[in-house]
Amino acid sequence: MADVARLAGVSSQTVSRVSNGHPTVVETTRQQVLAAMRQLGYRPNSAARALRYGQFHTIGVILFNLSSTGNSRTVEAIATHAATEGYAITLIPLGAPTQDNVLGAFTRMGELAVDGVIVIIEVHLLDTNTVVLPPGVHAVVVDSDAGDRHCVVDTDQADGARQAVRHLLDLGHRTVWHVAGPVESFAGERRTAAWRAALEAYGRPVPPIERGDWSAESGYRAGLRLAEQPDCTAVFTANDQMALGVLRALHERGREVPAQVSVVGFDDVADTSAYLPPLTTVHQDFAEVGRRCVQALLRQIRSGPAEPGTDLVPTRLVVRASTAPPP
Questions:
Q1: How far apart are alpha carbons 291 and 293 in whole angstroms?
Q2: What letter does residue 267 receive in the DSSP assignment?
Q3: 110 and 86 in one domain?
Q4: pTM metric for this prediction
Q5: Most buried of the four, 78, 102, 231, 320, by CB within 10 Å?
Q6: Rounded distance, CA 140 to CA 151, Å?
Q7: pLDDT digits (tens, 9 = 90+) for 278-320
């Protein structure tokens, strides 16, 4: 640092302020110091700075798996928005959705020196009714029912499902069949509950649920069963991958989409506009979920604990070519 100060013609304190991004440094002086750093190959010691100021500029992310569309895109968005704020992320996947594993991950995060943690909890825990986080930790929870105890960010799953059902009923369909997600999924649970509530609110019959596991293969199996139902003219699937399987099954059974059966998905993944036919679906704004997670956590880091509550990110229906009035 002394060599940088000598070359730039400033004090060591000024070099320290530039290294720490202090806003009071005059821009010409800042550029002068940065040029000296580049010339000498000087790199500030981030570990020492973290110990001195008590911040590591690292966000921990705990989740149960990276295989699902929602989780992978949410993590990507968190990493992107954290980087714009000058933060890196440390990722810890858990082997099983248990309270013990969650607490163990928090212990590990403490050893890795993070400023706060984002926990993506998309399924019910196996060993307790709801997640419990260690006290005094800056934390944001994604996709959970813990809004009465923690700061939660989630997609408005219920409104998305309502939009899908309303769209199909407005087209003239008598009712809407449903391919649901796994029973342990928070998102799947909310979408199914909203589907049922919307049909009941319109006074329409509620068909039996077909259950899938988010995969296209499970959607295909459900679609084969639905194809045998002559009164099935509209299907709301809980995600786009299962909708893809439903489309294949209906095609194989000679049920034309949308002339004979309309299909709506959920997520709006990148390839849905290339499905045959292009899929009508509910758009989830994963980038906004990630941004709100990072901003909520940074507010806690900078200003202290947040009040419990759930911040819902709106959804919107994207109408394409897989829906039409009933035959």
A1: 5
A2: E
A3: yes
A4: 0.82
A5: 78
A6: 5
A7: 999 999 999 999 999 999 999 999 998 888 999 999 999 999 9
